[in-house]
Write a structure and sequence with these properties.
Alpha-D-Glucose-1,6-Bisphosphate, Chain A, domain 4, 7-stranded antiparallel β-sheet, alpha+beta, globular, 7 strands, about 55% strand
């Protein structure tokens, strides 16, 4: 499934870009992220995610790899598996940051693959959950930038 959003932010790109690299700030902004650590600066990260999808609660470690970084563009891949619930997730995210009149615009394009028990819930339920997570991320990021 895929989710794409244009996220208007009140902060200028010069303030948003460093925030995207601030691990502690991103833990606060990403719904369900309870912990994250930098393994290799600006390249590899480890995180723990917890989510409720329908009646199923998942908790999994994620390996995150930055696959591309250039001015205003960031691409990453994340993979994880909850062995207790027999569910695997892989996510590819592209972030494009640019200026707009009153701050900046962050285009987020994410593609999720979900396997196992959670996948059995069906595409519409998982799609709604993914869209909700992206919308919550946008709201949290705007609040974090306002501090």
């Amino acid at each position: 499934m895929r989710v794409t959003r244009e996220i208007p932010l009140s902060a200028p790109p010069a303030d948003v870009w460093p925030a995207l690299w601030d691990v502690a700030r991103m833990v606060e902004c990403v719904p369900g992220c309870v912990d994250a650590n930098e393994i290799e600066p600006r390249r590899r990260y480890a995180a723990r995610m917890t989510q409720q999808v329908g009646p199923i609660r998942i908790s999994m470690p994620l390996d995150i790899e930055v696959t591309e970084e250039k001015p205003g563009c960031l691409m990453l891949k994340a993979k994880g598996r909850d062995t207790l619930v027999a569910t695997g997730v892989s996510v590819t995210v592209r972030l494009d940051l640019g200026p707009r009149e009153a701050g900046s615009s962050l285009r987020l394009d994410a593609e999720w693959r979900v396997l196992g028990k959670v996948a059995a819930l069906g595409h519409p339920i998982i799609q709604r959950r993914a869209e909700g997570m992206v919308d919550e991320f946008a709201a949290r990021l705007e609040r974090a930038l306002g501090r």
